[in-house]
Structures are given as structure tokens and as C-alpha cells.
């Protein structure tokens, strides 16, 4: 019988018109697992499915003990999130290049190495924040063939602080990063730009002459958010750097276009800056914006529009930076989720539709996934009118995800540590624990409960850790199984122990045995069942011990006491010629039809099987006046071992 644990139930999921997503019943708690990487916190801002099918998660963690930030990573399988022991320290890594090392975006190369970008600084002083690019080996260790250290930080100018938002690896090993500069207490300027690095970590001087290019926002009337930005690389190698601009208290999406040589397109928008005044955007911190390029060459940008109203947005632009009016309403699709909701990364599906991941609340979490059709309208066959709300633990925030071919969604984010979510359309389909139907057993006996072979661990509610246990009491027995992929499932079976039927008795009449018990009967001779002997009567065919068992409809059985038969083979002594007079009687009787001198023994047996030996007078008289009232069987055996019987009633 399947055991439905509250943490696995889908009650918290919204009933949906079409495709429904629920938390996996076999991964973690409510389809969620967390991975600690060091003494501080950890998160997963990004996730990439590697060629080996493992999922690489990466983000940033903070520890107050050292007031420092590290890059936090984990490699897990997509079955139930088992860590890959070949990566980092048992599957996780906390990487520190300087006192502050953060990660915003990453990608995996064909050789398994990881390229990423973010911010690095000696400490948390803002003026020291510099854009940084990282390259790691497949096992998570810094690749020291890249700038001798595995990372390089480079400023857009000598004074400004800055950050990288997106990383784009090239087939020849070069790396392009897009990001921004921002002024600080020492000066500097705000701008949107890009840098390109050679495979060895040196600056690529074929890109803008020194590997660095930036559009200074001074004089444009706009400032920008340091943390919030993204970008795309077009098929021809051109870049669109996409940031959050602010002017007059209004925030909007702005773009800068840079060609593959590092030259800024000054005809793009106004003086090289294209600001979409029609789209108001909220500042929701690092990683709060994301962009993808469609096969048609359109640019989809996702994020949070109105934070107070909790609106997820996706906007579609053409490569000129103009909103595409064929998408959504005027180029924008807004979906109200809940107050203080956060819309994060977008996933482009093969049919042109998209999934946008986020949380119903910036603090409490609660996963939300929005599906839009290629034209920006909500997919009514997904979730509740296009919005899926699979149950997830409180305070676990959803940042991004990936759809797998079997319909599963593996998603990531943060709680106290790196968070992994698994959402499925049928939570019962991948369950595997099955103890079978409820069991009825017999009191005084036990039943075998077997959970099946091949699991990594067994945990019974009795405290046992074996594959099978014996149960002998009325109770619910629960087993929790963990397989080799760390998938976990549980099942329960109810055991009821019932009383066996009443003990049967055997009545003996010569060689004829009978019982009044009802049920499934079976006679036994010397402990072995007698074939076909399943009726209420049985005639002994050999001297020895006889018993009968009765089995009820449940299968519980009771066995009689043993009766011993010794008269088989004794010749009959004129059974039909012997008679007893008077019969019934309360005193002496006369036995006729037998010579008293030839009688060797005379016995009377009552209905319980009790035998009394008698003596016969010369005239054939027997005195039974001392016998209790009842029915008896009289048996005479002569000196030639022949037998005669008669029925006698004593009053």
C-alpha cells in the first residue's frame, strides 16, 4: 500500500487545467535538496547541464565569520540530486580567489572546463569591486593555465568599480564577458561594455585595441544598476549588453550594441544607447535579469517589472533594440504573481515557447513557473492559466531551471545553501517503494514483510535496517528506501493479526474418525497430510497417530489433539450377529452372538475417546451400571484377534 507523506503530497499545488507540476515524491523533502559548500551560505545563481548528464550549479555564498564571499558550486545527478564525488570536495566546492569572489553566470566547455564571470575584490569595499572572469577545471579546481591563477580581474577604467554579468566562450578558447562600470568614492564613471580575453587569460587586443570597450553613460541622463544586467551574443559575434537604467526615478531596460571587433554601434538607439521607455523594471539584485536569443534573431529579456505588485515580465526586442509589437502587448508580457514576487531566469524551449522561473515572495520563496507561447501569451494548458505553483519549502527561492526530455524540470536557487528542486507531472510515476496490500496474519504467528532487493538503505519504523522483517502485532509498518541514486521513497502496510479457529476434536468409532469443526479441513497421519482427506470424517487405513486441522478463510489454522489407532488389520468377528440387550440400559446387559469363553478383551469408549475395560461373565453378562449416562462404543476382541463392535446407550 502506498504511503502518502504530507511532505510529498501535492495538496499545496494549484489544480491546473493542463500540464500540472508537482514536487518530486522521491527527492529530498517536497522535491527539494540543499548542499552546504563551506561554513557560510551558498546559492545557485546559474545551472548548466553537462555533456555527461550531470547538472552543474553555481552561485555565491557569504560567511559573517570572515565577512567574505566565495563562489559556491555543486555537481549533481538529475535523478535525485546525488552529488558527484569527482567534483570538488565530495561534489561541492567553495572557491575563493580574493576576499570577495562572486559568480553571476557560467558555461561549460566541450572539454568539461567551466568559464564564469562575476566580481572579485580584496574585501567588501565597493571601490575595489572589479569585473572578473574565471576558468575552472572539470573537477572545480582553478585552471592555472588561465592567467596562472584561474581568474583575471580587469577594470573598464583605472578608477571605476565594475561587474561582469554574462560570459560567452568562443570555439577557439577566447572568452567574452559583458558587464558594467560604476563610479565610487574615488571617482570613475558609469557605463555598459564588454571585454574579451585570450585562452591563456591575457587581454585580446584584437577587440577594441586593448580587449576593453565601454559606452560611458555620462551625458545620457541615465545611470544604471551595478548588479542588474545581462546580454546576448548574436550569430555574427555582435553583442547586446543589456542593463537596468534609471532616469528621473524610473527604471527601464537599456541596451548597447558592440560588434565583434569591440566597436560600439553609435547608430544603435541614441548615441549608442537604446532605452526602452515603455518598460518599467524593478531592481531585484544580481541575477535578476536574463536574456536569450531566439532562432528568429529576437532577444527575450526577463525579470521583475513592478516589485510591489509582483509582476514577472518578458519583453521581446529585435536586434535594433526596438520592442517587437507582435509579442505580448506592445512587445511586453506582464504576469501578476504576488506582492514582492521575483521573476528570474528564462528558458527557451524548442517550440519557441518559454519558461520563466521565480518565486512568489523575495523572502519566503514558493516556486512559480510561467509558460508563455512564442507570441507572449500565456499557455493555458500549463498550470493554472499558464502559471505553475508546485509546492516547495518556505524560504527556498527559485532562480532558474531546465526542462528535461522526460518532462521533469530540474531547478535551482538558494535557501541557506545551494537549493535544488525537482518538479514532475506525475509524482506517483517514479515511486518505487511497494510493500503490497495490507496483510492479515494469525495470532501466535508472524508475517514476512519484504521491501525488495537492491536498495542502498532500508529504514523500517521498527528500527530495523534489513530488507525484510517479521511482524507479529497489529500495527502499521513503514519502510523508507534509498536507492543508489539517493532517490528516497516510503510505503506503509497495515498488519492485522486475527485469532485462529477453535481447536477441533476427533471422535473415534472403531476405525472411523470424525470432527464437528467447520472450515477447510485436512487429516494427517503421523504428521503427514493425507491426500484427499478433507472431509469431516475419515476412516483409518493404518495403525498410527491421526490429527485434523481446520483452516479459516484468513488462512489461520488449529490442530486437534492426536488420536492413536491400533485396530487396523484386526479381523471382524461377526459384526452383524452380535447384539446387546437391553439397549438402552441402566444396568447389566447381555451380549449375544459371541462365545464368552473366546473373548480376550472388552472395552467401552465414550464420545470423548475415554476407554473403560470390562469383564464378561460366563453367561455373557456385562455390568455397566457404574457408567455415566451417554453413548458408548462396545468393542470385543477374541483370542484370535478378531473384533466385534456394537453401540450401547446407558441411561
Descriptive overview:
With 651 residues, this protein is mostly beta strands. Among the domains are: 439-498, no CATH class; 507-565, no CATH class; 571-650, Immunoglobulin-like. Helices cover 0% and strands 46% of the residues. The protein contains no helices and 51 strands. Strands 1, 2, 27, 28 and 29 form a 5-stranded antiparallel sheet that branches. It is rod-shaped and about 145 Å long.
Individual helix count: 0
Low-confidence spans:
1-17
Distance between the termini: 61 Å
Bin the helical content.
Answer: under 10%
Percentage beta strand: over 45%
Overall geometry comes to: rod-shaped
Mind sketching the topology for me?
Elements: E1 22-23, E2 32-35, E3 46-49, E4 55-63, E5 68-76, E6 92-95, E7 100-108, E8 114-121, E9 130-136, E10 151-153, E11 161-169, E12 175-182, E13 191-197, E14 212-216, E15 223-233, E16 239-247, E17 250-258, E18 273-280, E19 290-293, E20 299-304, E21 311-317, E22 332-336, E23 342-348, E24 354-361, E25 365-372, E26 387-388, E27 397-403, E28 409-414, E29 418-424, E30 439-442, E31 447-450, E32 457-460, E33 468-471, E34 475-482, E35 488-498, E36 507-509, E37 512-514, E38 520-525, E39 528-529, E40 537-539, E41 544-551, E42 557-559, E43 563-565, E44 571-572, E45 579-581, E46 588-592, E47 599-605, E48 611-614, E49 621-623, E50 630-638, E51 642-650
Parallel strand pairs: 30-35, 44-51
Antiparallel strand pairs: 1-29, 2-29, 3-4, 4-5, 5-6, 7-8, 8-9, 9-10, 11-12, 12-13, 13-14, 15-16, 16-17, 17-18, 19-20, 20-21, 21-22, 23-24, 24-25, 25-26, 27-28, 28-29, 31-33, 32-34, 34-35, 36-37, 37-40, 38-39, 38-41, 41-42, 41-43, 45-46, 46-49, 47-48, 47-50, 50-51
